Amino acid sequence: MLIALSRPADGIALLELNNPPLNLVTLDLTRQLEETLDALAADTSVRAVVVAGAGDKAFCAGSDVREFPRVRERVVDAKLRRENAVWTQLEDLRQPTIAAIEGWALGGGFELALCCDLRILSKNARVGLPEIHLAVIPGTGGPLRLTRLIGESRAKSLLYLGETVSAADAAALGIAYQVVPPGRTRAAALDLARRLAEAPALALQACKRAVRDAEHLDRDAALEHALDLSARVFRSEDVLEGVAAFLEKRPARFRHR
Questions:
Q1: Which of 58, 188, 189, 244 would staple 103 via disulfide (CB 3.0–4.6 Å)?
Q2: 98-154 pLDDT, tens digit each
Q3: Domain count, the chain
Q4: CATH number of the domain encompassing residue 144
Q5: Same domain for 225 and 158
Q6: 131 part of the active site
Q7: What domain range includes position 72?
Q8: pLDDT of 218-243, one tens digit each?
Q9: Distance (Å, rounded) from C-alpha 184 to C-alpha 171?
Q10: 142, 87 contact by CB (below 8 A)
Q11: Catalytic residue chosen out of the listed positions 16, 83, 102, 111
């Protein structure tokens, strides 16, 4: 299996790209990732998702270029359209998602990490979009998502030059939520996932939707949408528990409904 899915703790799913040592994106990996994301989207018991790569050499070093000759004449229909749909499927998961990045995250692998809500990088990690060196462009949403994250000028510099970025520079750019010692990204991501899994799931999902939809709506529409989300979460049982815990000065015990 090129995608491994496990449940390391209550409410947490660990999705692992299992194509070591570089965890390259292939047509088969994309198909299996789609099937796994379908399962996660339907699983209401999962409240946080960690995405990682097998081994310590790479989160994902991009596409397997050995497949390029067979798809070159019809690359959109044979490869990129489905990849875009699956990468967007990860971005649109209702659960918070965390990428645990050891080693390389390049090309389509970096584009996949950009679909996650938060990214934790090892100090020895390097990320980037080196497609220009193959005379192609990032084709799985990288220009769009990177520009939204770090701004037009910085995104252009990475796209035009195809240079990789260190973990420290990724943190300075706002790409990395946290930088940890080598070998610790998965543990750090799971620790963060536990915190998120203990938080009220409906409110977290509403936060995710409010941020995502704000990118596509004008100000007034975004404010009205946030009001609608607020109305929904205020009707949840977790609000009553949160208020009671606050007044009684005790930890809340959310039931995620």
A1: 58
A2: 999 999 999 999 999 999 999 999 999 999 999 999 999 999 999 999 999 999 999
A3: 2
A4: 3.90.226.10
A5: no
A6: yes
A7: 3-198
A8: 889 989 989 999 999 999 999 998 99
A9: 16
A10: no
A11: 111
